[in-house]
């Protein structure tokens, strides 16, 4: 929430101050804030000494304008800044200061708006900035279009600043739309103007000659100075990268102008940060179907958890944040999915020693070391607390379980020599083989002290001690929320979120040599679209990347298949027409069943800004046989 509202205010301030700077040689300028609500923009600009020759007009419904006028009069700091010169009660003018006019009327009544602004002293021959900050979308399109056109036609030197929602059809967009529908304030612009390109066309068609538009990920990356980005990123403990980037990909800032002495381009930046433009080319699609699960529990509605195949057709899911006993909380119970007679059964797992601390962790890893033993590494409770250490999970040897109630898990606390290495989360632990011995390769992640880590450890699976094994080659840049898969005795690392909270598109193979390991870059063509918070599997020389978050706001990641022999990289969309709910593929887990070529997606989702929390309600099955045989 804090970052989401910060970036909105930052974008508006950036563009307004750019307008004031570019027009400072003019003897008079003006700003018209449409649907201004209780915005404090005028008072901030005035306090900063930026309104030397600028008059600010604000328009909103009469009841809002009256309430705001009352507030200003009541607060002496505000009334001192505005310098009240009377004029209230003159028609629609609810407050009048020397350089501040507050008008109460309906924006959609254009003739009334024009008459009231003229009465308040607005001049349509001087440079004028129109601000519409999440306002026009609440109006019928015909009325908001007419307003945009009226501003272009009636003012000889005009600039327009628009901040609004977009991308209504993807999973986050569906949750966003549903939220506003439930509030009985539908977002009208979205159907006709769903993306940046449509909004830009809209302004050109309505008489504006220059128009730039970008989503808020691009604005933060390209129009916010690096030191300011770092200041914001360090303000408070933060671990909601997915939610932040998804929120930013569903809002845009647009600037348009006409008749200005020189084009108004506050969104042009000198920063050469690459950004994803244009649609993603899809090689095909894979249909998602809801798993036939027979269960009465909601325990698989969660995110930040980990799922692992502990026996054939038995999947254990631990940790994360989700829904338990009708409440949203960090998950205490373990859950299993068991495939029996063609369908999946879900249920809770009995803990043999419930007193052993699980610590209700998120973003941990679970590695199966045998059919009866798994190792939990790291994870966190709060992002401001230190990471958690290691735990053994022990299961009975029997493998003929057909009912969730048959599975029991024993938790064993341990403080191995390698414990300090485990105090992290959003990392990976992957089995590698060196000189015939098994090791767990612990890589990357983040900690309470370090927002991103690039170190690694080899944990000997018997003693759980760190073994020094030489590693040569180009070291990958630090990352968390990446994927890691065992392959040919080494490990494949793909994607992740890097040091400046930017998704990475690199793929590395840590390959076994006679005397140690070597990092090798895996070249992909076309280049892999940078992403993080995805899952991954290797099958028959192909690396499968599942879901995640990327900055291509025109689509969401589906399945990417990388041929490890040729480097060919193909993206496949996930067809969700058989699902009755949005499928959010970040912070999920996935299990690949190689014999059936079936991919099971478990959990996923998260907070959707102020629109509510969405957790995928059921596991989802994808059959990959077509793409794995045809690739």
From TrEMBL:
Matching InterPro entries: Gal_Oxase/kelch_b-propeller (IPR011043), Kelch-typ_b-propeller (IPR015915), Ppm1/Ppm2/Tcmp (IPR007213), SAM-dependent_MTases_sf (IPR029063)
Enzyme Commission (EC) number: 2.1.1.290, 2.3.1.231
One GO BP annotation of this record: tRNA methylation
Highest rank taxon of the organism: Eukaryota
Keyword rRNA processing among UniProt keywords: no
Pathway: tRNA modification; wybutosine-tRNA(Phe) biosynthesis
GO molecular function: tRNA methyltransferase activity
UniProt entry keywords in alphabetical sequence: Methyltransferase, S-adenosyl-L-methionine, Transferase, tRNA processing
Catalytically driven reaction(s): 7-[(3S)-3-amino-3-carboxypropyl]wyosine(37) in tRNA(Phe) + S-adenosyl-L-methionine = 7-[(3S)-(3-amino-3-methoxycarbonyl)propyl]wyosine(37) in tRNA(Phe) + S-adenosyl-L-homocysteine; 7-[(3S)-(3-amino-3-methoxycarbonyl)propyl]wyosine(37) in tRNA(Phe) + S-adenosyl-L-methionine + CO2 = wybutosine(37) in tRNA(Phe) + S-adenosyl-L-homocysteine + 2 H(+)
UniProt-listed PANTHER family: TRNA WYBUTOSINE-SYNTHESIZING PROTEIN 4
The family this protein is said to belong to: Belongs to the methyltransferase superfamily. LCMT family.
Protein name: tRNA wybutosine-synthesizing protein 4
């Amino acid at each position: 929430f804090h970052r989401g509202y910060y970036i909105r205010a930052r974008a508006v301030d950036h563009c307004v101050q750019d307008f004031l700077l570019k027009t400072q040689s003019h003897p008079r300028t003006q700003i018209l804030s449409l649907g201004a609500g209780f915005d404090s923009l005028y008072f901030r600009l005035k306090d900063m000494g930026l309104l030397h020759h600028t008059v600010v007009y604000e328009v909103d419904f009469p009841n809002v304008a009256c309430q705001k006028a009352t507030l200003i009069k009541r607060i002496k700091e505000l009334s001192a800044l505005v310098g009240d010169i009377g004029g209230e009660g003159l028609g629609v003018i609810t407050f009048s200061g020397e350089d501040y006019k507050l008008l109460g009327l309906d924006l959609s009544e254009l003739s009334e708006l024009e008459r009231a602004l003229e009465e308040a002293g607005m001049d349509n021959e001087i440079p004028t900035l129109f601000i519409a900050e999440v306002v026009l979308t609440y109006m019928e399109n015909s009325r908001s279009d007419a307003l945009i056109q009226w501003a272009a036609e009636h003012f000889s030197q005009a600039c327009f600043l628009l901040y609004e929602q977009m991308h209504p059809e993807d999973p986050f967009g569906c949750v966003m739309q549903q939220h506003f529908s439930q509030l009985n304030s539908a977002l009208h612009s979205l159907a006709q103007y769903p993306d940046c390109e449509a909004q830009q066309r809209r302004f050109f068609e309505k008489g504006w000659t220059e128009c730039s538009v970008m989503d808020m990920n691009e604005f933060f990356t390209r129009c916010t100075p690096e030191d300011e980005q770092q200041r914001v990123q360090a303000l408070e403990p933060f671990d909601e990268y997915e939610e932040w980037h998804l929120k930013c990909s569903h809002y845009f800032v647009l600037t348009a102008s006409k008749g200005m002495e020189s084009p108004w381009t506050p969104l042009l930046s000198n920063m050469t940060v690459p950004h994803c433009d244009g649609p993603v080319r899809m090689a095909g699609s894979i249909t998602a179907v809801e798993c036939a699960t027979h269960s009465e529990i909601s325990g698989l509605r969660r995110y930040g958890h980990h799922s692992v195949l502990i026996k054939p057709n038995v999947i254990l899911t631990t940790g994360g944040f989700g829904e338990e006993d009708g409440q949203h909380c960090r998950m205490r119970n373990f859950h299993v999915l068991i495939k029996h007679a063609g369908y999946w059964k879900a249920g809770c797992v009995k803990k043999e020693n419930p007193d052993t601390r699980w610590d209700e962790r998120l973003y941990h890893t679970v590695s199966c070391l045998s059919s009866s033993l798994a190792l939990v590494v790291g994870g966190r409770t709060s992002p401001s607390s230190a990471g958690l250490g290691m735990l053994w999970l022990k299961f009975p040897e029997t493998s003929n379980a057909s009912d969730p109630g048959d599975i029991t898990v024993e938790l064993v606390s341990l403080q191995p020599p390698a414990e300090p290495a485990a105090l992290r989360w959003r990392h990976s632990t992957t089995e590698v083989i060196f000189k015939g011995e098994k090791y767990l390769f612990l890589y990357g992640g983040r900690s309470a002290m370090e927002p991103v880590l690039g170190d690694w450890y080899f944990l000997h699976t018997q003693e759980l001690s760190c073994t020094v094994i030489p590693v040569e080659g180009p070291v990958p840049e630090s990352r968390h929320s990446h994927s890691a898969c065992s392959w040919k005795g080494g490990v494949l690392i793909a994607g992740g979120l890097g040091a400046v909270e930017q998704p990475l598109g690199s793929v590395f193979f840590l390959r076994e040599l006679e005397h140690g390991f070597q990092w090798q870059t895996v070249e992909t063509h076309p280049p892999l679209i940078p992403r993080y918070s995805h899952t991954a599997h290797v099958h028959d020389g192909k690396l499968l990347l599942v879901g995640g978050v990327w900055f291509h706001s025109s689509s969401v990641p589906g399945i990417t298949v990388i041929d490890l022999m040729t480097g060919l990289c193909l993206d496949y969309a996930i067809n969700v027409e058989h699902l009755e709910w949005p499928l959010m593929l970040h912070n999920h887990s996935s299990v690949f069943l190689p014999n059936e070529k079936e991919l099971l997606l478990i959990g996923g989702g998260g907070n959707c800004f102020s629109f509510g929390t969405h957790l995928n309600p059921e596991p989802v099955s994808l059959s990959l046989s077509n793409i794995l045989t045809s690739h």
